[in-house]
Structure formats: structure tokens, C-alpha cells
Design goal:
By secondary structure, the protein is mainly β. The protein is built from no helices and ten strands. It is 0% helix and 50% strand.
Length: 112
């Protein structure tokens, strides 16, 4: 059974970089045909896709984001990561990593 777990700081100051990591267990992020994504939900809003990284390392980002999401992976650790630079309070949200399953989500608050 594939499981995903987000990790990272719960509090980030405005203008700093938000960094989150998703650790995948029970399956490999390089398995052919699989894509791994970051999704967030801000208070009172719907789900917002931020970007994805494919089994082959291909990267897709949501062009409508005010701050482009940077997605990377570490195949040796079976992890993929999200970086969002110059965050503002509008980036406060529950962040999920997802693939064949979803992580439980992690709350990130942007505040000084």
C-alpha cells in the first residue's frame, strides 16, 4: 500500500521560502506512469493544484500561481519536494502531496 507523508515547517515568515517534502513509502516515485503532485487548500477556498513531477522527472507547474512553484525529487530517498519563494499570507493553506494516494496534509501558516 502506497503511503505519502508531508513534512516541513508549519510557520513561515512573509517573503521567505516555503519548503515541503513528501516521503513516499510502499512504492517508488520512478514507477512508470506515475505522477506526483502538490495541492493546497486555503481557508474558505477549493483545492488548488500547484504542480507535478513525473516518474521520468518531467515537471509541470500551475502558471496561474503568483509565485511559481518549484518541484524537485530525490530518488535515493523516494521523496519529492515543493519550494515556494517570497510567500505572503495568501499562501497560508493546508498542503497535500498526492500520487496514487494522498498524504494527510500539513498546515502551513505564513505570518510574521
Amino acid at each position: 500500500q502506497v503511503q505519502l507523508q508531508e513534512s516541513g515547517p508549519g510557520l513561515v515568515k512573509p517573503s521567505q521560502t516555503l519548503s515541503l517534502t513528501c516521503t513516499v513509502s510502499g512504492g517508488s516515485i520512478t514507477t512508470s506512469g506515475y505522477y506526483w503532485s502538490w495541492i493546497r487548500q486555503s481557508p474558505g477556498k477549493g483545492l488548488e493544484w500547484m504542480g507535478s513531477i513525473g516518474y521520468d522527472g518531467s515537471i509541470y507547474s500551475n502558471p496561474s500561481l503568483k509565485s511559481p512553484a518549484s518541484i524537485s525529487r530525490d530518488t535515493s530517498k523516494n521523496q519529492f519536494s515543493l519550494q515556494l519563494s517570497s510567500v505572503t499570507p495568501e499562501d497560508t493553506a493546508v498542503y497535500y502531496c498526492a500520487g496514487v494516494a494522498w498524504g494527510q496534509g500539513t498546515q502551513v501558516t505564513v505570518s510574521s
